[in-house]
Design brief:
By secondary structure, the protein is an alpha/beta fold. It has seven helices and five strands; from the N terminus they run E-H-E-H-H-E-H-E-H-H-E-H. The chain is globular, with a radius of gyration of 15 Å.
Length: 167
Amino acid sequence: MKQKNIILCGFMGCGKSTVGTLLAKKTGMAFFDLDSYIEKQEKKTVAQIFADSGEAYFRELERNAAKALSEKNGVVIAAGGGTLTFRENVDSLKKSGVIILLDLPVETVAARLKNDTTRPLLNRPDKDKAMKELYDKRLPLYRAAADIVVNADDSPMQVCREIMDFL
């Protein structure tokens, strides 16, 4: 019997990688971070890919990675912050799994990402304004894609427990 994948989505800084790692340990499933998966294939960081080849090229890599990972069985996948803003990625990932939104208020995201310089879409002078605009644009898309919404404002272990209770 095929085991469903668990796909974590949400805005950057919401804890997808941290919670995904915990969830994988607790369930015995393999864990894949979509951005890390792309970085390994390209032998570059996401920021370098953006700088060298642009966002459109990165989104193409992301689409291919989402498709490849959706063909796996019984894995935990932390989707990139922009992955589920594209219908094609949502469709690919939904075929093999349940999508869980790690929901976090934008104020908490801002606090978590205050000193983070690794995110290409936020590396600009008006970081807070850019973050709020991106958050407002993406949140409805995450909600539309999600099968389950979990409050990610708790500790990663608590968020993990909540997800396991849902499943």
